[in-house]
Amino acid sequence: MCGIAGAWRKKGALDKTQFENALNLMQHRGPDAMHSIKTQNLNLGTQRLKIIGIEEGNQPRSDKSGNHLAFNGAIYNYPELANSLNISSRSDTEILFQLILNRGIVKTLKEIRGMFAFSFYNAQEDLFYLARDRMGQKPLFYYQDEGILLFASEIKSLKKLMQLNDIAVQINENAIYHYLCFSNIPEPETIYENVFAIPPAHFLKYQKGKTSITSYWEHQYLPKENLSFAEAKLKVQHAIENSVKIRLRADVKKGLFLSGGWDSSVIALEASKHEQNLQAFTVEYPFQTSQNESKIARETAQKFGLEHQVIRIDKSPLTLLEKSISTFDQPLADSSALPNLAIAESASKHVKVMLNGDGGDELFGGYRRYFTAKNISYLAFTQYLNKIIPNGERRSKLGFLKRTARITSSSDSERYLLFTTDMFQDHDIPSLWNHELETSTSNLIKSHFNKNLSDLDQLMHWDRTFNLLSGILVKMDRASMAYSIEARSPFLDHQLFELMNQFPDSFKISGFNRKHILKSIYAQQLPKSVTKATKTSFEAPLGNWIKNDFRTLIKDLLLNPQAKIYKFVNYTEIMLMMKGVKYQERNTQYMIYSLLVLEMWLQKDN
Q: In terms of Cα–Cα distance, which of 284, 459, 317, 318 is closest to 376?
């Protein structure tokens, strides 16, 4: 695991010290070693976190022919690939380097299994490749024109490289609007103009000032596989066990995040089959909420022989909020990012690798909205109840019914935001937004619409494209790497997604039962406290924080007509929302939180 950065300039390489100053801004991603190389036109460097091949994995990797590799991530099937190459190395970096040299970029990308972002430069052909893993777990950002290519694992380093090249770094107004709708900035867009993320499952080719971006993998939902539920269960359990097992390959201490839910409990079970002395970490808030699952997690840890540690969130929410602003590089309005930072900080004192359950809901159908999507035709009648159902607390049964009524009376593109963030939408633009828009959220969502998919598959695809990629994975990567923790997610294995994508909707949602196939496999293997518990989301108590911990900050920042956010959004409109005059039916807590995060980020950026 590393932070990588690079600069290719037609007019010649950057000063080595200046380049390393930009690279050092990511020291948290790899505090164990820093190294960079400089050639006539190239600067390439890594901040290394030593996880696999402690002594063998130094990089950037180079050879006498002028090939250079900088790699961030983990290739889990490196032993099998080493055998196919007849190489004895224990370094996944070395295996990746040899694969590219022997089989080329396309075959390499199709063979490797893991989370990764890397750059490969061939000096003889003056050819650059930038590539990213299939699910988008590891980040890679770039800026390019005809005479320059700059890239880095984090925007802060790329921004520094741009400044070193006298390139203007300007706010992307369109990205701010999308952020207020999605609660994150949907990739490949970023908060800065002309700075983009390499899309997941794509590689960029840069040669002689010309750029092309090519896909090497994508989600395939059709045709559906014709097999029995019993056969599917056997395939899925085998795939989960294998995915967990290979993610335990590391030369350092390992642990896992354990809540009271199904996903992390399944991973704990499967990991305990193959690894001794695993540590499990559970979050507990300092006041009683529905999110405190430490008792259930303790039972699970005892059942599977795991050492268990409860992390009590004792840092003030304000301190965590300020940390998040400096950590994420661009606005991210997910309040669970705050406890994620606390978890990573505490876990970093004990382990360097942490398994987690990210992707389980998007893989197996865990969100409540998936039930609605699968049964949307049966729920169409609720649209006639929209005007008579009163607003209720968002996660209450009344709140869910009200949102369902609004969803069934909306267009396909509007439905996605109602299903998820339920914040601002395109029809708010005339009264809310102060600028012209290049791309509306509706058009962005429509660009990922496939009329041949079922309502469930379509919603899950949108979630993987927006919520998972630009929200959940960003949150996990930045929070864990802020404290030099490598976070591994067995449920994000691309082979698992290939398998589940081919199953019918009924294998995921059966009646009122979500995650049907996962629960059918593991119901008899997990503690009853897990299988009988009501599903809760890993969310911070945002309502409590807004009313108490953030109250003064909100007053000082958002109620100030001179706040920087009011360059983009209408002050009067926000005041109407804050007073409960408008938007009462929406997720106003997150709307307020998103504006607060944006204002704090804008102040820090300037």
A: 459
The residue count for the chain: 606
pLDDT tens, residue by residue, 322-378: 999 999 999 999 999 998 898 899 889 999 999 999 999 999 999 999 999 999 988
Q: What angle do CA 435, 413, 475 make, to 5 degrees?
A: 75
Rg (CA), the chain: 24
Q: Which two tokens stand for residue 464?
A: 């993987």
User: CA–CA separation, 75 vs 108, rounded Å?
Assistant: 11
DSSP sequence for 140-166? -EEEEETTEEEEESSHHHHHHHHHHTT
What pLDDT sits at residue 276? 85
How many CB atoms are closer than 10 A to CB 572?
Answer: 11
pTM: 0.95
Q: How far lies 235's CA from each of 238, 347, 496, in Å?
A: 5, 33, 10
What span, in angstroms and rounded, lies between the C-alpha atoms of 282 and 163? 41
Cα 386 from Cα 485, distance rounded (Å)? 46
Which helix (H) or strand (E) is 205 found in, with range? strand 202-207
First-to-last C-alpha distance (Å) of the chain: 31
pLDDT at position 1 is 65
Identify the CA nearest to 596 among candidates 570, 564, 573.
564
Q: How far, in Å, CA of 310 to CA of 348, rounded? A: 14
The pLDDT assigned to 288 comes to: 44
Is residue 196 a contact partner of residue 189, using CB atoms and an 8 Å limit? Answer: yes
Question: pLDDT class for 606, splitting at 50, 70, 90?
Answer: confident
pLDDT per residue over 223-265, tens digit each?
A: 999 999 999 999 999 999 999 999 999 999 999 999 889 999 9
- Report, as an integer, the average pLDDT of 408-422: 87
Mean pLDDT (whole number) for 27-47:
96
**In angstroms, rounded to a whole number, what is the distance separating the alpha carbons of residues 2 and 486?**
9
Listed residue (36, 328, 263, 1) closest to 138, CA to CA: 1
Instruction: Copy the structure tokens of residue 478.
Output: 């930045």
Tell me which H or E stretch contains 419.
Answer: helix 412-419
How large is the average pLDDT for residues 419-441? 92
Contact 14, 7 (CB under 8 A): yes
In degrees rounded to 5, what are phi and psi of residue 444?
A: -65, -45
How far apart, in whole angstroms, are the C-alpha atoms of residue 425 and residue 314?
36
How far is it, in rounded angstroms, from Cα 252 to Cα 279? 13
How far CA 523 is from CA of 186, 257, 374, 516, 548, in Å, comes to 36, 20, 23, 10, 40
